[in-house]
Structures are given as structure tokens and as C-alpha cells.
Amino acid sequence: MSVSPLANSPIGLLVPVGGYDPRRGADYSASAYLPNRLPDDLALSGATHNAITRAMSKVARADQAMLQLPNPELLARLVIRQEAVSTSAIEGTYVQMEEVLRADFLASSEYSGDVAEVYNYVLAAEAAADWIREPRPISVHLLEHLQKQLVTGTASDGPQAGRVRDVQVFIGVPGGRVEDARFIPCPPGQRLRDGLLHWEAWINRPGDLPLLARLALGHYQFETLRPFNDGNGRLGRLVMLLQLIAAEELRLPSIALSPWLEANRREYQDHLYQVSVTGDFEPWIVFVCQAIEAQAVAAVRRVGKLVAIRNRMLEELKGHKAKGTPMEIARELIGYPMLTVNAMKDRHGVTYQAANTAVRRLVDLGYLRQFSEGNYDRVFVCDEVLEALVQAP
Predict the structure, then answer these.
(1) Which residues fall within 8 angstroms of residue 52, CB to CB, at 6 or more apart?
(2) If we measure between CA atoms, which residue out of 277, 281, 279 comes closest to residue 289?
């Protein structure tokens, strides 16, 4: 690793690390970066305060837009799945939204490895949102539980799952020498544990910093410490959403940050690195505010688009003299754009025959399309809702 950019960091120090690299069959000797504790206050410029104010106003609008829905939880479940797809793509795991939605109707043994990894995020994020709304604090214990969920059944599953790492990790060395790594995070052991516990206390302690500055600083510190063998990026981005919910700026997980960060991945990674090099948090804070503002605006547009689709469908169905279960299924397509007859039978408390007749009616009218044959049930999809969800704002 070239140590020169980090050697003079004003907010951290380099510490020696060494060991044996089994990939190359050789010992290594390098330097790892140990960040200082986070500050409780920063002197922020007027431009940074303006960026924070703009983003917070958009967050408030997104929250209000969701709460105007009769069942906002329906759309929140889709937002979590959209976040799961993009946050995993940032880490190099690519799946389509259709695959994630279909996983609701499959046994875990039927998933591909990539789908299992993304669906694990869905389960972890839903559990985390419930935890925060109880309310309970963001904690190392929570993150250990979530990390274990993220890696269950994947290549990273094993003795380290759900535990703060006890081995050294490296960033940007696929097949290369450890000494040439772009970044080597904090060594395992007491320094890592102390840094993580301080991060936990800082995240939960009220301070003078504006909320979005706290999101940015907390995310930087977590990603710099990289406390787990795998899943740090996904967990760190989830924590930002949890902070918004804990502060009651969002009542539900209605904003997916990762689609914007995925589109700006290189800049995202460079900003994190430059904080360590320069000690200047402001460009990073502004970048995070840009992400939040853009995705909050996208959330409002998404709500409007999906509500318009639902209202038009319901009006058209009334014109077709539809009533009862077909109408109830159509009303909830903005939360369940992929479904099976059995799932609708259970959700709406009707017989299999009634649910099958309702689904067939919606297929005949063009609102649903059979997507695939399942081992236990046919899977149907509402293409219009799915397209509105995944298309760029």
C-alpha cells in the first residue's frame, strides 16, 4: 500500500500490520489506518448548512407522501427490496428486482447464490427497521445480528459470521500484494473493538451536529473501521436509514439511498478515502446530502406515480363491474406487484377458488401477467407497477 496519502492524515494514524499471505505464499509488512474518534461538533460552512437544509426538507416531503397512502407499509416493503438490489450491486452482486420479488415464493434452496445474498439483506433490513421503531438503539449487538443474517448461506458464512472480525482485511488487493492495497482498515483486536464501541456511543448520543452531518460522519467511521469480514458497506448504508427512522424524520423506510450511490459509486468511494487523507468532512457531508435529497425527491415521484397507477386501475375495474377480491388485490399491487394465488388466498382470507378466479380476472383484463411456473404455485406480475418502481426518476 502507498502510505503517503494517509501518512499525514489529521484525523487518524497508520499502524504497522504484518503476517503471512497464503495467496502469494509470502509474508507481508504494511500499514493499516486507525481513525481518530469522531468529533461532537464541526464548524460547517453556510453552503454545507444549506445542503443539509435542502435535503432535510425533501426528506420531510417524502415522509409525508408515504403517510398519505392508506397502507404505506405496502410501498415500504418494495423500497426495501429496491435498496437491497442497489446496495448489493455496489458490492458487486447483481440481480434483477423480479428475482428478489419472486424469492418471496421460493424455498431458500431454490435461490441462486446472488439472490440469496440480496434477499438476506431484505430480511435484515426489515428486522432492523422493526428494532428501531420499538424503539431500541443502534448497537454493535444489532449489527452483529444483521451481519449474520446478511451472510447466512453465502460464501462468507462461517465462524466469523455475526462477530466483529478477528483477522486483518484489505481493500483493493484482488490477487495483488498486500503492500499495494489501496486501503488497509484498522487491525483486529482491542483497537477495533474500542473504535466500534465509541462509534456506537457517538451514534446514539445527542450532539450539536445536524442530523445529516451525523449520518455522513457515522457512515465514514463505520466504513473506515470495517468491523466485519463481509457486509460492511451494506450495513453502513442501512445504518444511515436507521438513523433517519430513529430521529423520527422517517416513519417508514421510504427512501432508498443506494440507487443514487450505485450510480455515483466511484465518487462515493473517493469521497470516503479523501476524508481520511484530508480530514475535511464537508465535501463528504455535502455529497451525502446530495444523495439523500435526490432519493427523497425520487421517493415522492414514485409515490405519485404508483398511486396514479393504482387509482386508474381501480377506476377501470369499476367500469368492468369488478368488485370484491379482484379489487382488493388490485388495490395492493403497489406493494405486491408479484404474487401467487396461494399468497392472495392467505392475505385476503378467501378460498383458493375465489383467489384463483380473482387473479384470472386480472390477467384477462391485462393487469397481471403469468411470470413463471413455481414448484408450488404459479407466479404473476404486474409489469406496470414493477416498471414504475425500478425506472430511473
Answers:
(1) 44, 210, 211, 212, 213, 285, 289
(2) 281
The answer for residues whose C-beta is within 8 angstroms of residue 148's C-beta and 6 or more apart is 161, 162
> Please, what's the b/e burial string for 29-62 (b: 16 or more CB within 10 A of its CB; e: otherwise)?
ebbbbbbeebeeebebeeebeebbebbbebbeeb
- State the average pLDDT for the chain: 93
Asked whether residue 196 falls in the same domain as residue 262, the answer is: yes
Res 237: pLDDT: 97
Same domain, 296 and 349: no
Q: Are residues 238 and 335 in the same domain?
A: no
Stated as kind and residue range, the H or E segment containing 373 is strand 369-373
Q: Is 157 found in the same domain as 123? A: yes
Please state, in angstroms and rounded to a whole number, the distance separating the CA atoms of residues 349 and 184: 55
How does pLDDT run across 103-159, given as a tens digit for each residue? Answer: 988 888 888 899 999 999 999 999 999 999 899 999 999 999 999 999 999 989 999
Q: Tell me, yes or no, whether 215 and 72 share the same domain.
A: yes
Q: Is residue 311, in this structure, part of any structural domain at all? A: no
The answer on 99 and 51 residing in a single domain is yes
Same domain for 141 and 75?
A: yes
CA distance 112 to 94: 11
- Convert the pLDDT of each residue in 255-275 to its tens digit: 999 999 999 999 999 999 999
Chain-centre distance for alpha carbon 50: 26
Residue-number span of the structural domain to which 371 is assigned: 320-390
pLDDT value at position 106? 85
Instruction: Check: CB of residue 148 under 8 Å from CB of residue 161.
Output: yes
Question: Total structural domains in the chain?
Answer: 2
Pairwise CA distance, residues 101 & 382, whole Å? 12
What mean pLDDT do residues 152-172 have?
A: 91
Strand partners, 21: 26
